[in-house]
Each structure stands twice: as C-alpha cells, then as structure tokens.
Design a protein that fits this description.
Elements (H helix, E strand, L loop, with lengths): L12 H18 L8 E5 L5 H9 L4 E4 L2 H11 L4 E4 L8 H4 L5 E5 L2 H14 L3 E6 L16 H7 L6 E7 L12 H16 L9 E3 L6 H6 L4 E4 L1 H4 L9
Helix pairs in contact: 2-3
This protein binds pyridoxal-5'-phosphate (PLP).
Length: 243
C-alpha cells in the first residue's frame, strides 16, 4: 500500500513508463548527456505473455529475456515486433535456439561461446552483435571476464567474421544505496575507453549495457547507453518464476 492506501501494484504500465522516463531524463541532465544516448531494454522475464504484448503496444521496442525456456513462447508470439536482447548466461548448446532471433547477446563471456556464436551466425549468413560481459565488481557469483582478460579475448576473436562486439556489459552488486555501485559502472566505462585506445576492434566499441532497476540512474550518470529494466518498468507478476 502507498500513503493513500492504494495498492502499489496497481500503478499502470503507462505510469511506470512515464516515471522511468522522467528519472532517465533527470539523470541525463545531471550528467550533461543527451537523452537519445540512453536506450531502454524492457526486461520481461518476470511477466506474462500478455504483459509482454502490452509492453510492445506501449511503444517500448527493446525486449530483454535471460532464459530461452522462458522466452520462447513470448518470442513466438511477438518476435517480429521489437528488437530482442538475450541478457542472461548463455549455454553453448542453447546458441542454436537464440541465434537469428535475438539481435543482441549481452553475455559473451568465454571463447567457446564466441566460437559457437560465430559458427551458427555464419551458417545463417548473419552477423551476431554482442556485448562482452565483464565482472568489474569481482564478485565470485558473477559471470564475466575479468577486466584484464578483455584485451587478449578481443584479440582471440578478432578473426571471427560473423561476430561483432558492439559493447561491454556488467552487473553491479545489489546495494541498498545505489551510489555504492558507481565505481563498478565507472570501471566499465574506463575499460571501454582503454580498449578503444588500443584499436583491438575494426570499429570502436561504443555501447555500455549497465544499470538495472535499483541502480540505473547511477549507471546513466557513468555513461550507460543501454539500461536493462525489469521490476521498476514492467513490474513483477504473481506466479511468474521469479515473483
Ligand atoms: C533480471 C535482469 C535485469 C532486470 O532486473 P531488474 O532489477 O528487475 O530491473 C537486468 N539484467 C539482467 C542480466 C537480468 O537478469
């Protein structure tokens, strides 16, 4: 319940979209960034097929899911609408399911996965766009390359002609005070700039996928170009796997 005794869960999708937009605008203003630099991925893993459809109808164009098993029905219903982002850990044997369906893979974290993505993309005659997932915080529970592995990794995959690295991705630890996540997001930005200074890729790495419901404002202030928003934007529904 909120202060007026209303069910907080009854806040409409439209209201949540508007509130999030305002927060993004404010964060851009605080950090002197153009609003157009920040893209929103609506993470629908906590919500139903119906709500995913409503999200697209409300004009949110980018959809994020973290498991193919949960995404499949939604993708089959709405895959031709919007742009799909695979944001979760990706098992090599699941590449065949997601390739060609998800335009972006945000979780490239090992050579075996890069090889499989490149191979399956080549078979389809497409380029798969990826984000290198980097474990900036150093938490053992987090996936991702160690920051110092990024350079050798980019060299190793530089000949993979059907795989393109467009950005870096990270997840910050959950903090009660989001300000404490700032060094993680700043670290990812500095790593990107450092990698670009060494010209390891044919084109500069421009994108930063960082910031979730709890910490996206700080991530934007530190340069996020994609924020991945679930609970704050599309909500969480009873009965979904994560509720
Ligand atoms: C679930 C998830 C999100 C969104 O989480 P919220 O905290 O609900 O915004 C973002 N990124 C990844 C990788 C996720 O798995």
């Amino acid at each position: 319940m909120d202060w007026a005794g209303r069910e907080v869960t009854s806040v409409s999708l439209e209201d949540r979209i508007q509130q999030v937009n305002q927060k993004i605008e404010d964060a851009c203003q605080r950090s002197n960034r153009a609003r157009e630099e920040v893209n929103v991925i609506a993470v629908t893993k906590y919500v139903s097929l119906e709500t995913t459809g409503a999200v697209l109808q409300h004009g949110l164009e980018h959809i994020g899911e973290n498991r193919w098993q949960d995404a499949q029905a939604k993708w089959e219903a709405f895959g031709q609408q919007g742009t799909w982002h695979f944001i979760g850990h990706l098992q090599t044997n699941k590449v065949k399911d997601v390739i060609g369906k998800f335009r972006y893979i945000h979780s490239l974290d090992r050579l075996s996965l890069a090889k499989e993505l490149d191979k399956k993309a080549a078979a389809l005659g497409i380029q798969v766009e990826t984000f290198l997932q980097v474990n900036i915080s150093g938490e053992e529970s987090k996936y991702g390359l160690q920051p110092e592995q990024a350079k050798p990794f980019l060299r190793e995959i530089s000949s993979f002609s059907n795989l393109k690295v467009v950005g870096l991705m990270t997840m910050a630890p959950h903090e009660e005070n989001p300000e404490l996540t700032r060094p993680v997001f700043r670290g990812l930005r500095e790593l990107r700039d450092d990698l670009n200074g060494q010209a390891l890729t044919s084109e500069p790495i421009t994108q930063l996928s960082m910031g979730m419901s709890n910490d996206f404002e700080v991530a934007i202030e530190e340069g996020a170009t994609w924020v991945r928003l679930g609970s704050i934007l599309v909500g969480k529904e009873e009965g979904s796997r994560w509720a």
